[in-house]
Amino acid sequence: MNAIEVEQLRKTYVSHKKAPGVWGGIRSLFSREKNEVEAVKDISFSIGQGEMVGFLGPNGAGKTTTLKMLSGILFPTSGTARVLGYTPSDRKPSMLRKISLVMGNKMQLWWDLPAMDSFLVLKELYEVEDSAFKKRSEFLIETLSLADKVNTQVRKLSLGERMKCELVAALLHSPQIVFLDEPTIGLDVVSQKRIRDFLKELHREDNCTILLTSHYMQDVEELCERVIVIDRGALIYEGTLDSLTRQFSPMRRLQFTFGECPAAEALAKYGKVVESDECSAVVEVERDKVPAVAAAILTRFAVEDVSIGDVDIEEVVRDLFTQRGA
Ligand SMILES: Nc1ncnc2c1ncn2[C@@H]1O[C@H](COP(=O)(O)OP(=O)(O)O)[C@@H](O)[C@H]1O
Ligand SMILES: [Mg+2]
């Protein structure tokens, strides 16, 4: 059985237009002029047990809406979602004990209490046994290097430390499925990396299923083998990051350092020169022409060093969305 099965899932937010003022409010009770936002439009996908999948899309694409439907916070307009065989919107306690949703922009810890106090409340809520709680909290606190932070009032912690405490809180009950919505948003690069490393460790240790959205392509690049991409509510790609790059960016970049500097015009014959200074240059060529072009340049010029790189994945994804937006 797949951990997550989504079929033709759709969410349309409906709100009623309200004219300003008291009379507007009263009038709208009768006129009911509707405002509809199709946040998620019939998306289908499945995720196997133990997979860690990246969920990508620009702002407003419908990622958070989808994660909320999968964790039972929102009722779908139509279509079906199955999570570990459950229908999430039923909110069965046995399902809620097996999943977790972490939102980078929403805190569930009590602001004025030390994080440990919140952990103990969650322990009771999820009915975690004393010995299991001890083992689990020690593992999480250790892996996130939080030992000297969990007894400090949450409000006094840095944003990164708070996020790490949020992760502990969300994972104390050892969920089989973890939905992570922008867990690294707003964090400095060092904290981002700590959280990435932690997620790797968690995935290895628990073998849990993880669906991760992030603004930072590096998170997805390092953690996820497979990605699902949505744009304006519709699924536009599903597969490896590698073939996403292949499919949407046919170009590769050859980077040369020369012993003797060639003229820029001489290089331009071989491809698009995207960068050049004193004695180095970057030439962009189509993927399947790479061997021939590299060989030709190596033969013709005094090359000291050459490397072949992909076009930056961040750029590929950005281009993909801008192209579609146009
Ligand atoms: N509660 C809501 N009521 C009305 N529209 C909403 C609500 N929540 C989100 N939306 C709209 O639904 C769309 C998808 O939003 P969201 O799922 O938050 O996207 P993402 O997480 O990919 O940025 C956006 O157009 C957003 O403005
Ligand atoms: Mg979102």
UniProtKB/TrEMBL annotation:
Question: Which keywords fit this entry according to its UniProt record?
Answer: ATP-binding, Nucleotide-binding, Transport
Would you say which domain of life the source belongs to?
Answer: Bacteria
The protein's matches in SUPFAM superfamilies, at most eight in alphabetical order, are given as: P-loop containing nucleoside triphosphate hydrolases
Q: Which InterPro entries match?
A: AAA+_ATPase, ABC_transporter-like_ATP-bd, ABC_transporter_ATP-binding, P-loop_NTPase
Which terms does the record give in the GO molecular function aspect? ATP binding; ATP hydrolysis activity
For this protein, the parts annotated as crossing the membrane are none
Q: Which residues form the ABC transporter domain?
A: 4-257
The UniProt record lists the keyword Secreted: no
Keyword Hydrolase assigned: no
Fetch the PANTHER family from UniProt. ABC TRANSPORTER ATP-BINDING PROTEIN, ABC TRANSPORTER RELATED
Please give the name of this protein.
Answer: ATP-binding cassette domain-containing protein
Look up and give the organism this protein is from.
Fimbriimonas ginsengisoli
